[in-house]
Amino acid sequence: MSDLGARAAKVWKSARFRIVFWAVLTGVFLGVTGAGLPLEDILVNGRTWLRMHPSKGEIVMVLQDGKTLEELEVLDVSRANDAQVIRNLMDAGAKRVFFDRFLNDHEKTVGRDELLATFAKYRGRVFLGAMPSKDGAMGNYASVIPSRGLRKDAGAVSLLALDHPFNLSTSFPFASDSPIGVIPSLSAKIADVQEGTSSVYKPDYSIDYKTIPTASYVDVLMGRFDPKSVRGRDIIIAPSAEVFHDVHTLPMQGYVPGGYFHAIAAETLKDGVPFVLGWIPPFLLALVVIVTGVGRGRVLDIYRFSGLVVVLILFPLMLDHFRVQVDVFPAIAMATVAVFRMRNLDRVEVAGETNSGSGLPSVQVLRKYDAVSSRILVALQIRNYGAIIGSFAEHGRRKSRTRSSVASASATAKSWFTTRAGCSCGSPRSAALSICSRTSKASTGSCRTGSRWAGSTSISRSTAVSIRNSIARYPAASPVRCSQPRRPCETTNWSTSSTAASMRRSGKSRC
């Protein structure tokens, strides 16, 4: 258990692992609680706008519009008017008639007997709406239902709908509970779909409501319509005049009468019951893309970016065509948190591991290397090296290593500068002075040199001066004899600072 705990602690110390962990936790929270439903509706509405298409025309709307009330000079149509409209529609060959409103029933209502006789004549082909009550049971319960007399020969359908936050969308149940038991929703009855009361679905709002066949109630009442337009089709009679207050926001299409919602929902079910895939599949796919890009600079490269576009945009858009509904906002939230924080971590790590002045790796990044490099180490003196080394933990052991590095640097400088300066004799320090004197005379501020172990190398004037100053601070090495001198050389040990200063001023070498 101790080993397991140690491994877990080591994994938790990884900043990238913690970023992925909190990103996943954010996505899971949004998916489980549904807190991101408004943003999910916005994403769905955006895909809806991309998929707008006309209706199939299998359902006809008959609207009790302002034209109807003005021509009849009433505030509402009578039961006798309803009976005459039903007869005209049935005589024209309509399949069934659905009322998207609750019909009051009183024994003294004008035209009540005529309406009941029409229901009896077309028994089982007329359906009346049931509504929720403001002071009744909450939830999917239609407490206001047609009277017993109206239900004798006419059926009852639920008009309940589930409004999403901020009216960004609307869902419908397949059926609702009521005082007379479970009754189907209007759209489910038109599509002849039988489901339980616990399930809801979201209609395909990409159907353009303007392409749904529509007729005015008064035109049907007066017989001013084409019988072919209703033959063999289901009819929805819905109020649309302003006095009925039945206007709602249809996603991406503006304000429309509520009856169009039921028409679109019924057409959606006629094409097939939508399959709700949920938020987990796209969430897992996005997680795979994020995990494969935890390395530095990989979280939003071309491969991960393309993967996220496919999972979060193209994949849901394709599924919408097959009536498969997915929620992608939890996955988007997870990917956003992970990408944003990892990109920031990349910038912080690069800034911390690179010296802003020289562009070389910083001390912090060198301390992270576990293995010793097999390459040649060139050590340079640092002005505040004592302050830096004093902040390290094991000062004594690191100090001895520093001395070894200095000795190695001196030996390396002997070979390096003797080869570059063109000198065939002298000490490492004299070689350094020679090469730096040559460099100081260069007009471009840099010199090009060759090395038998490092190939061609370009060093700047400031770098050469720094190397010269570093080597000049240490005691001079023993003289070196020339194996094949180009010209006579003195084997003097340049150990005095005055000689070194003189050479720096003159820009000449003793070789």
> Count of DSSP helices?
19
Q: Quick check: average pLDDT?
A: 79
Strand content: 5-15%
Shape: elongated
Helix content: 40-55%
| Order of the strands making up the biggest sheet | 5-4-3-13-2-12
This entry's quaternary arrangement is single chain
Q: Which residue ranges are poorly predicted, with pLDDT under 50 across at least 5 consecutive positions? A: 416-458, 474-511
Radius of gyration: 43 Å
Secondary-structure-derived class: alpha/beta
C-alpha termini separation = 69 Å
DSSP strand count: 19
Short description:
This protein is α/β, with parallel strands linked by helices and 511 residues long. Helices cover 46% and strands 14% of the residues. The strands form seven sheets. The chain has a six-stranded parallel sheet with strand order 5-4-3-13-2-12, sandwiched between helices. It has a three-stranded antiparallel sheet with strand order 6-7-10, with no helix packed on it.
Structure description:
The protein has 511 residues and is α/β, with parallel strands linked by helices. It is 46% helix and 14% strand. The protein contains 19 helices and 19 strands. The strands form seven sheets. A six-stranded parallel β-sheet has the order 5-4-3-13-2-12, sandwiched between helices. A three-stranded antiparallel β-sheet has the order 6-7-10, with no helix packed on it. It has a two-stranded parallel sheet with strand order 1-11. A hairpin with a 6-residue loop joins β8 and β9. The radius of gyration is 43 Å and the shape is elongated. Residues 416-458 and 474-511 have low confidence and may be disordered.
